[in-house]
Description:
Layout: E1 4-6, E2 9-11, E3 15-17, E4 40-41, E5 58-61, E6 64-67, H1 76-88, E7 94-98, H2 103-113, E8 120-124, H3 140-153, E9 157-161, H4 169-179, E10 183-186, E11 190-196, E12 201-208, H5 213-224, E13 231-234, H6 240-248, E14 253-256, H7 258-262, H8 266-280, H9 286-289
Parallel strand pairs: 3-14, 4-7, 7-8, 8-9, 9-10, 10-13, 13-14
Antiparallel strand pairs: 1-2, 5-6, 6-12, 11-12
Helix pairs in contact: 2-3, 3-4, 4-5, 6-8
Bound molecules: flavin mononucleotide.
Amino acid sequence: MHKIKLGKMELDSPVIPASGVFGYGDELKGLIDYKKIGAIVTKTLTIKERKGNPQPRIWELENGLLNTIGLQNIGVERFCEEKLPVIKKLKKPVIVSIGGETDDEILLCLEYISKKDIEAIELNLSCPNIAGRNLISENPEATYNIIKQARKITRSFLIAKLSPNVTDVGETGSAAEEAGTDALCAFNTFKGLTFDWKNHKVILGGVSGDAIFPLSCRLVHQLYQNVSIPIIGIGGIHSPETGLLMILCGATIIGIGTSLMINPDLPGEILNEIKKYKKEKNIKKWDEIVGRKARFF
Ligand SMILES: Cc1cc2nc3c(=O)[nH]c(=O)nc-3n(C[C@H](O)[C@H](O)[C@H](O)COP(=O)(O)O)c2cc1C
């Protein structure tokens, strides 16, 4: 596989982990073949350590998961002291995901992390599991404003992680592009509901896994037609074919969340499928495969 360019990064593979299913980067050592993934993506970090929501917070659905984790993490400072030196040794580009409850918290975290030697920063503008606020990326104006401010703080490669819970992803994607993000990560989880029959409680959370693939793939396809920056396509990829299809619909890079926890060999299986397709269609350049189907719709 040729290297895939994302800004100044040269990725060995177009397949990367999605934030939150990979710990801080080295937890899946021994389980996953790091040669088959293009980058390390961390769990979302916040300025202060967070305990997250009370357990249980992962609910298995018929065809996926509903999670209510609530951004549990060790905080950006501890991450830089304890984890960053360890993941640096893996010799992969590092994408650090950051978030927070307010714009100020996110920007403080950005200020801190952008002084460190990392390849890219993903702004999580779309976590459905923090109480008391609307998601930034559900609103094009709020998306534009925070990225504009972020751009003043850092020249690092910036990725905006968007919510699929909007009427028009083209609108939020374009707002993020216009404000100066370098790439889009599409998408976070879909807002969903399940029921705790034991305690008779409604559980609100984010839905991921197989069930959401057709939804997110269609939204990536729509986004691709509205923006010209690279898209990291995420949402329900669970097989070699679904990985390939996400790329054909417009994703330059693809991310795997839920299914990576079920099948750590999936990145390698997707790479084989891509190689087969490129050979069959005599595709030489990565640009020829990205959005190949979206262009013909
Ligand atoms: C257990 C769990 C934790 C997650 N934590 C984060 C997170 O910290 N930050 C983030 O941006 N997305 C987080 N996500 C969302 C994933 O990165 C991904 O966008 C979403 O799960 C859809 O992809 P998938 O269907 O392949 O899982 C989490 C998802 C799961 C299942």
